[in-house]
Design goal:
The complex is a heterodimer of chains A (291) and B (233). Chain A contains 11 helices and 12 strands. Chain A has 291 residues and is α+β, with helices and mostly antiparallel strands. In chain B, a hairpin with a 2-residue loop joins strand 10 and strand 11. In chain B, 39% of the residues are buried. Classes of the chains: A alpha+beta (291), B alpha+beta (233). At the A-B interface, helix 3, helix 8, helix 9, strand 12 and helix 11 of A face helix 1, strand 7, helix 3, helix 4 and helix 5 of B. Chain B: This is SapC protein.
Amino acid sequence: MRHFRHMVCVFAEWSLMQFLFEPLNIARHRNQRWSRPVHFGFASDIKLVPLTFREVHRAAHHFPLCVCRTSAGVSLVAVLAGEDGRNQHVDDEGRWTAPYIPFAFRTHPFRLIASGTGTSLVLAVARDGATVHADGEFAFFERDKSISEATRAVHKALSEAEAGNRELAAALLQLEALDVLAEVPAEKMGPWLRRQRCFGVQAVKLRALQAAPPESLAGLFAASPMAMELAEIIVFSHRTVMKMRRAQPDRTAEVAPGSLAEKDEAAQAWSFRRKEVDFLDYGDNLTFDIE
Amino acid sequence: MYKNLAPFSYERKRLELFNIFQYKHLNKTITFPVSLVEVNNVAHSYPVLWQRNKDGVELVALVGLEADHNYALSRHPNFVQCNLLILEAYPFALAKTDKDNHWRILVDEVMGQGEDDPAPLRTAAGELSPEADHRLSALRIFAESYGRTQALSQLLDRVGLLKPWDVSLKIGERFVGLQGLEVLDRDVDIRRLKLAGVIEQVGWDAIHLATMHELSLFRMQNLLEARTAPRAA
């Protein structure tokens, strides 16, 4: 029993508690097969999913990203839930509707879990009748009792992701040290957030960092490049646009025929009414503008 | 993208401003210059990379894989709403035409095609029309960070961070090639090492542009899918 309690504890953070994960075992899984998930109903109540190092850029195009602090440490997570706390990317028939499926779901029913002694990670399989059954696509074990090629491939992918995640975790700690994060208020995402601790990049803090002297920024970047890139990626995922609220005159003024200079000089010469935000803010951003 | 550029003067009384979709020749173009101020938006839809020309390199958005398949003007469902400033401003354009390197407003003297009536340059009261104001405002916003964008692009080129990105794609039974495009060095360690030197000169802009560029490359898949899949109703 102690062994199982430990396994559940590892995954409690990510709300996959509806499944019990058991270490892959010849006695337990020899006569069973597994299938890749087609239906994602099991994810319909999952609000946050941790991302792997390799999928950060791709995921940023489809989900808002946040830094999540749990008892297990810091993780970069994709926010899946809407205001009602339901995963917005799974429909009533259990189909995944977003163009990208996070790695954690694609590798279901497998996970790496801490071994009984806690010194290493072992491949574990969910007790999930939808993906683990006698008629599944792939065997867990070959007839000679060796692990099947398909199962080995998933194990390899999970192990590589785990190795990359150590780099990601280090970058997240560096991101915290840059002091650009702030806790996302529950009203930004929904009441369900009160049970989580999610951090986004706060615009005002990021601007302070951006305004640092170039030589200081270069030093920071040399020490923690991934952290600074992550700050940009998180902001990008929230589709926050930089709003430049310069004072605009009420009416159009004519300028010297057809000429303008750049930036500061241009501020004098150009005086058209439309503001930057008219062109750059499409109204679907600022979800986490927690300024 | 321009066919018949001429200097624009505020003395000018008349100019027909057609809907952007009526300038059919723009469909032939698949790369358009972008400015730092809009990179964050553009990277959500299109690859943002560099194109080499006689003056060095220019930051551009790749909005299609072949002429006549310009998704910035197609309202294709694969692409989130993103209006490139340079297209918002059309037919107004910018160029440095005098010896002092001052930017000058030009206008592409091209007739639009189609039945929609063009908007006038001026209202009956003689003021700039809302349509003209919109387009010139877009040009102003583009211009305000274009010089900075170009300076950063040339710097990235000088330190050897830009590498040719020749792409060959199979579309149906044909191979379509893209030439003259450049991307940041694909070696992450080299890229970060050289980028630190650029940051030392220009500050955060370099981190912003490099990260948006990397993110935007994932939009290539979008272009390919739009070109190969039947258009959604």
